[in-house]
Design brief:
- By secondary structure, this protein is an alpha/beta fold.
- The chain is built from ten helices and eleven strands.
- The strands form three sheets. A five-stranded mixed β-sheet has the order 5-4-3-9-10, sandwiched between helices. It has a three-stranded mixed β-sheet with strand order 1-2-11, sandwiched between helices.
- Helix 8 links the parallel strand 9 (201-204) and strand 10.
- The protein is globular, with a radius of gyration of 21 Å.
- The relative contact order is 0.18.
Length: 260
C-alpha cells in the first residue's frame, strides 16, 4: 500500500523518491522505530523521519512547540489517547492508553445490546457518537432513530436512543481518559505546570468533537480547555508542517535516517 501510494505521488509531482515523515505513538521502542523506518524505506522513500503523534498534533494545532514554556496536548484518536506535555521542542511527560474513539464505539454497541437486546455495527455506533454523543448532559436532549437486529427474533428493529443514554454508555471510558490527563498533569514539573494552568489544555483528534468533553475535562482538572481548530486534521497538518520546514523543526523528530 505504501509503495503504491508513493509511486502515485512521485509520478504525479515528478519528485523521484520522496522524503517521508511518519507519525508514530509516543514512547515508541527502538525495535518498533526500526520496523517503521524499514517498511517506509522498502516502499521507496529516500529519507524517513519519525515524529511522535502528540507532537505532530501540537504543531498542527498551532502551538509553538519550540518555546521554553509548557504546553499540554490531548490527542484522542481511534485506537489510543495520548497526552503529552511539550517544551523546548521535546516531550517532557507523556502517557498513552488504548481507550479512544474505537473503544467508545464499542461501549455504545454494548449498551444498545444490553438495554434494548438489539445488535448494531461499529459504523452505526460511530454515527451515534457523532450525532448524539456527549460527555455531560445537554441543555436540550437529542434523540436519534437507529436500525439494528433484534437478538430475540433475528429481525430488523428500529429504536430511538437519547443523548443521555449515550453519555451513560461512554462515561466509564471517558473517565479513564480524564484520569490519564490528570496523571500527566501530576507528573508535570512545577515550572511548566504554571504555564499550562495559564494557557490551558488543547484537545485534538476525533474524540475532541464529543459534545461537552471540553467542559468535563475543565471541570475535572480545574483548568481551561480548548479544542484545536481542526481536531481531526491536527496530526496530519502537524506532520505536513514538519516536512515543509524540516531544518527548523528537526529537534522534534524521533530520528532521522537517510538513504543516498
Amino acid at each position: 500500500m505504501l509503495r503504491n501510494l508513493m509511486e502515485k505521488v512521485s509520478s504525479k509531482y515528478k519528485i523521484g523518491r520522496p522524503r517521508v515523515v511518519v507519525g508514530v505513538p509516543s514512547g515508541i521502542t527502538e525495535v518498533e522505530e526500526r520496523a517503521v523506518e524499514e517498511s517506509v524505506m522498502h516502499a521507496g522513500a529516500r529519507e524517513v523521519y519519525l515524529i511522535e503523534e502528540p507532537m505532530a498534533a501540537a504543531i498542527g494545532s498551532g502551538l509553538d512547540v519550540a518555546e521554553p514554556s509548557g504546553n499540554i496536548i490531548v490527542d484522542i484518536g481511534g485506537g489510543t489517547t495520548e497526552v503529552a506535555v511539550i517544551s523546548l521542542g521535546g516531550i517532557v511527560v507523556s502517557n498513552s492508553i488504548r481507550i479512544a474513539g474505537d473503544e467508545l464505539d464499542e461501549d455504545i454497541v454494548n449498551y444498545i445490546k444490553k438495554a434494548y437486546n438489539v445488535a448494531i455495527g461499529d459504523t452505526i455506533a460511530e454515527e451515534i457518537k457523532k450525532e448524539v454523543g456527549c460527555a455531560l448532559p445537554l441543555m436540550t436532549e437529542k434523540t436519534m432513530e437507529i436500525k439494528g437486529r433484534d437478538l430475540s427474533t433475528g429481525l430488523p428493529k428500529n429504536i430511538v436512543i437519547t443523548s443521555s443514554e449515550i453519555q451513560i454508555a461512554m462515561q466509564e471510558s471517558i473517565s479513564d481518559i480524564i484520569d490519564v490527563i490528570k496523571l500527566t498533569l501530576e507528573k508535570t514539573p512545577p515550572e511548566l505546570a504554571s504555564d499550562i494552568m495559564e494557557k490551558g489544555i488543547i484537545l485534538a483528534g476525533g474524540g475532541a468533537l464529543i459534545e461537552n468533553l471540553d467542559k468535563l475535562v475543565s471541570e475535572k482538572t480545574g483548568m481551561p480547555v480548548f479544542i484545536a481548530e481542526e481536531p481531526l486534521q491536527s496530526v496530519v497538518k502537524g506532520t505536513g508542517k514538519t516536512l515543509e520546514d524540516l531544518e527548523k523543526l528537526k529537534s522534534v523528530l524521533v530520528n532521522s535516517r537517510k538513504r543516498r
